[in-house]
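lol ok so funny story. i was supposed to be doing the assay writeup but got distracted and ended up predicting the structure for this chain instead. priorities right. anyway since i did it might as well share w the group, maybe its usefull for someone
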Amino acid sequence: MSFRVWLPVCLFAWVALATQAQAATYQTTRGSDRDIRCYLSLGVPDPPVAGCSRSGYHPYAGVNLGPGVEAVGIDLASASLRSADLRGADLSGARFSNSYLGRADLEGADLSGANLSDVLFRSTNLEGVDLTGADLSGATYLGRSTGSAFYDYNTDFSNAWWDSGGVACLISDRCTSFDPVVAGWTLVPEPTTALLFGLGLLLLLICGRPQVRAEKASCQRRSTSAAASSSACVKRSTMRSRSPFSHT
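and the output, tada:
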């Protein structure tokens, strides 16, 4: 084979190897490392992320993902993170839209303010996950996940589904919208609400103390008065018994 034929083949192989070497990895729940690949659902004909192709490597080239990793604001839209172990990870403000998080372990992770729109959750561990201010619009299989996550009034559950959702709901009409209350998730009150509640309790304690003191003083006075009255009665009875006219 001539040099002109070998040159393009070698260049193609070099580019493929370089791309694979730059691909970031994530740790699975079994402890092994896996390359981060693109995830394109059936309803997405065109790749929503530049450089992503079906079953190709994801263009993300940041820090490798694993338990306790600090990856604030990373962009992993349309990423396949099946069985990822991200326990205790700081992923606040990250972008995971249109990604696959099935069977991932997110226990205790910080996903506050993260974009989780149209993410597929299935058998995902969400115990103790901070989802305050997160965008979960269009997310599917939230009801098939485990654990109780934290959310607030800014968490977006619009068009979030208990099961599959999407086109399947239009066909079968059997889908159920996701309700965090029914799922047993924990609502985090807004800071102003918590502050007002705390101030109310403080005022009750402050205002209640004088009343308690007054009631205690009143009880003491009544007790003292009753004791004095009882003593006076005993004295009168004693005086009558000693009087020479008491038996006449």
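Residues 192-236 form one domain. Residues 191-242 form the longest helix (52 residues).
back to the writeup now i swear
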